[in-house]
Amino acid sequence: MSTSNPIRFASFNASLNRSNEGDLIQDLSAPGNVQAGAIAEIIQRNNPDVVLINEFDFDANGEAARLFQENYLGVSQNGVDPVEYPYVYVAASNTGVPAGFDFNNDGTVGGPNDAFGFGFFEGQFAFAIFSKHPIVADEIRTFQNFLWQDMPGALLPINSDGTSWYSPEELEVFRLSSKNHVDVPIEVNGEIIHVLASHPTPPVFDGPEDRNGTRNHDEIRFWADYINGADYIYDDAGVSGGLVSGASFVIMGDQNADPFDGDSVPGAIQQLLDDPLVNTTITPSSEGGTDAALRQGGTNETHLGDPAFETADFGFAGVGNPDGVPGNLRVDYALPSSDLAIADAGVFWQASDDPLFPLAEFPTSDHRLVYVDVVTPADIDRKSVSDLEFLGEVQFETGFTFADTEVGGLSGLAYDAESDVYYALADDRSSDARFYTTTIDLSDGSLDDGDVVFTDVTFLLDQDGDRFTSGDLDPEGIALTEAGTLYISSEGDANQVIDPFIREMSLDGEFIDELPIPDIYLPTADQSSGIRNNLAFESLTISPDQRFLYTATENALFQDGPNASVDEGSLSRIIKYDLETGLPVAEFVYEVEEVPEAPIPEGAFNTNGLVELLAVDNNGTLLALERGFSVGQGNTVKLFEVQTQGALDVTGVNDLFREKPLDDDGEIIPPGVFEIDPAVIKREILDVEADLGIAPDNLEALALGPVLPDGRQSLIIASDNNFNDTQFTQFLAFAVDFNVTPAAQPTLETPLTVDDEDGTTPLLGDSDDPAIWVNPENGDDSLVLITLKDGGMAVLDLNGEITQTILPADFGDIRYNNVDLVYGFELEGESVDLAIASDRENDTLAIFKVNPDTLLLEDVTADGILATIFGVDDGEATAYGLASYTSPITNKSYVFVTQADGNQVAQLELSDDNGAVNAEVVRMIDLPVPTGDAADSQSEGIVADQELGFMYVALEDEVGILKFNAEPDAGNDFEVIQSVDEDYLVPDIEGLNIYYGPDGTGYLIANSQGDSSYAVFTREGDNEYIGSFVVGDSDDIDQVNESDGLDVVNVPLGDAFPNGLLVLQDGANDPQNVAEDDEELENNSTNFKFVDWGNVAQSFEQPLLVDPSSYDPRNPQNRALDGDDRLRGTSEDDYLDAGAGDDDLIGRKGNDTLLGGLGD
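^ that's the sequence the OP posted. Answer follows.
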């Protein structure tokens, strides 16, 4: 849907039920029914796009719904604009349907209480859905006949003696739904939103068995299970299963359950309100609810819930009389899925002094209309080209004309999906500046002669409505908005000191508005700064969500360094505009490659430049076209995929050229361009001539076209022939496959950290690694510990706020790199939790106790702790990554420490040293060194499985992820579980962590720093790859890039993170802090992002596990010895205990004891 225009969904129990079958049709057959008119006026005033009307009597032909539209909704009520709903669904209902059983156990069969749902005739109290958007009728699912007993764990009513209220024969036919449960897919702007409509029975009118209360509970539960994909569910067509994962929905209806008050089973409605798939960030409210509670008093005075949220006026005893039981309640709901952002929500209930007050009052209905306005947030998943297939070429010779114009100079291309046409911008610097409307037919899967047709031409006009004069502009880029306007970029003319521009124009070529151009881009007469001539704004593209516009210079600004040559590249700038404000919000550096081929003759004209950009997602991924030309050689055109995510933002940096020489240990480095850390990441997708064998013309235009019949995305590249007789206009077509990496949204971010001893931010240092401490008494009081390298450590609460900083020496004299926790360590007879950090500067450990009362860290490092782990203390080949491990076999506690600039991993045993904690190296592991240089085998990411007894370590750039036995006597044997050469691991491979699931399942998560993604593997078995995810933007929280450490817990952390918590270091935090570091410009702003694990789990097409209860970090299960094991002894005396499973024990030499456990 991806639209900024909210879609309103409303639920309204309108009490349009009648005492006799057919009465509603009679009442609606002509205008004039007072109640129907009032209901229609309420709907007109709220003007929902989709409205569910509960208690609307059913008729199979939908006659009542048709008459209500024709005579009431479609007719102005009291001067309010009528509303049209071309799509209507009326739901059959169990109300009044005879069952043939004595359901209420009164000794007789028949009547409304013995029907499948209470009703005096079939279809009484049913419901109807009215929609402005198409209903996908052939995909509607109904659950009218689903049996209550088929719900696992159903709350079937029981008598006081423990027997079932319903007989086995009755349960064989008893339907769960008192009316119906229906899933009605509605197509909104090309996307499907499922309306999940129902009207559970009131939880009253029964006895001690609470048969209506328990039924109400399970009718509500049905939707909770359905949206979570429960496989026990079957529909009336016999199709099994719940809603497809990731589908958008709105749960609507009178649920007859209040979260705090009334007679529903406690927790009934919370089954929906507390589900992480349901968005409850805004609760619909009204002034009228509060006013009514105060006016009516009575039972309302004892209620716990906020009366502003109430939707039903129950217990009314007349003006001046206090309300009776149950009082006013919140029972009507419109609950969107978590992927739908709530723009607004409300209850149509006015205070008594409001002129509209009488409209909604009884006898109109005892319920009020509830609405929610939703917006589908922009898709923040990351796309990457996985395959590109060439579909064909079409050429037009120079001189080809259309509508008395010469077709040529096509420097920009934009696709209009609604009209299925392209707008091709002609690079004509005269009064004939224009764009062509063009069709390109790829319906047969290829591009052939005759498939490209020019159908119209539109001339561009200046701000006065006149055509441009010659030389006033150099039109290069074109982009289409969803509002049907165009953005046009002009390079201007640096030689004539004519400014470039980016203007919004109508499809008629008329001026609408103009975006501001930062001063550093404006040309100067002495060419000391600003754009170079004919090397400025060649490109223009808008993100799919219409939020951001990108343009770029073709080569460096004068002040940023040289233009591209055979010997060196050039630093182009990409400008990112926020179209909501019309202002530039970021500038990234794109490193244009050197000119591909030397000209012939030497010294003749040659160039290479960035000529087009194309946004392919809302995450910051672009396609970029580089075009080089050398006299005597021709054109070289390459297509790149570009990741702007995490790139250095050089906004405010006036030049990228270092003016002063540098002294590097006596070597003088002359002035030159800065190294940008990092520039945008480029990946070559296509070299036109080398890959296709086609000589490219001056290709400059790039556009995504329609989706092809086979589901792939079409891509068009077109050329600017410069109106030159030696050139031609060229169209190339491709089919593109994209890999999609799902994006999870962060919940909050921590204060930024600046790596500057003299900085002014709350935290100083370079953030690196987190550890989540789970408070055993109150999850809300859990902590997140973070390392800051030279800045020590800090402690944060679950709001991301700083509660403690730890810097026991001067800035830089210690360097806390990684941190992990040990739960339940015995210290002087007391069980304590330890936080242990690696000190890279001093090659040792820093050990702290977590005080559960003060929630502060206390230093318990032994005075005699080892002075060096790896035998050096130079801050180089020293302690680096760290992971804790408590043996499930011996219960001894250890830490594994990796070596920076080295290939070793040390295992240290922790011990009580008179109330302090000491550590001793008990094992040294040598990692493989395929390059012959140990520094190349550096590792930082490391984690130990506390239940299965494995240790995983990731070499940053070599080999991959290795798996070791974590016991100290296990030796150096390892298994490579994932190769560094896999596409989903882009070096550096940094942090590793484990999400624990039941029975040894769960996930191993690896940080693929090179593309800022996280790869997920099975914890069990062979650690197979499941998929990857990224962490995207969320409102004012930026995405995670250039990440180092991570930590994850499955257990609920109070109300803040009921699904568990993932904490990630963000190495490219925004707002950035650009700093010079010798030859580099870098961003030294970092922080941490907190991500609800449910957000990660639900981002996958097949959701990951969310299991908050199977693993307790304080009481891990010993699973190290369970399974099918193959254990080999050594030449010494061995004790081999394989535990339960099918085991293969080989003693070899020595006096061995072999214990196989249960199994074959």
